[in-house]
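Dock 3-methyl-2-oxobutanoic acid; give full complex structure.
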Amino acid sequence: MAVTIHQLRQLKQQGRPISVLTAWDFALATLLDQAGVDVVLVGDSLAMVALGYPTTLALTLEEMLYHAQAVTRGVKHALVVCDLPFLSYQESPQQALRSAGTLLQSAGVAAVKLEGGYPDMVITVHYLVERGIPVMGHVGLTPQSVHQFSGYRRQGTSDQDADRILQEAIALEEAGAFAIVLEHIPATLASKITNTLTIPTIGIGAGAACDGQVLVTADMLGLSDWQPPFAKSYANLRQSITAAVQDFCEDVRSQKFPQ
Ligand code: KIV
């Protein structure tokens, strides 16, 4: 049975933390799903970790669709949520509907995620939800606004900014979002938001009180050469892959392989 947005809300009520990891291709998505992750996010971080772009801004809807199609082919159980890429939804709710509709229709993802709150994104979330498209919100550090923030800085550190983020989260829930990512904000603020909302909060660099946690899988597996301060590596695949490739090259050159 596939995970549903309804079940995520039940998990919050039961106090069972929700696990979320990102995927960008079939092989990785299959592994994450078979290992039992609750939600697979086709995050636009794939622009950086899989495509080598300097930020998430360059990723197009067409590129996202291509990756989302590969991911959904590999997932049988987890809920698949797909990021709406930069400039594929900010223009108007109608543009967001077309982009989200494309991802649901042509890739088979179950839901979309978009960044931001007041006022436009709250209106857009409401517009999408009213038309049957489940939406995950994302507040705090929203990487598509990296230039606006002058870098990947922690957000919500002043009382005023913290209150704005709390109000945005409340407004997104009222607009119909089924869950919300809280990125790189103080743990006390994330805890306050988590206790205020009835929908699940999914934290990344937001402390332990969130209803779930998300990591970029390239960071979690030790694949990326740069990692944010809040990431945790559960493996060092850079090291393992480099050693395996060096062994292969050595075997070929010394004619040990094939035997
Ligand atoms: O794109 C992404 O991977 C994300 C997560 C960091 C939440 O949005």
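Observed: Residues 22, 41, 43-45, 83, 181, 204, 214, 216 surround 3-methyl-2-oxobutanoic acid (CB under 6 Å).
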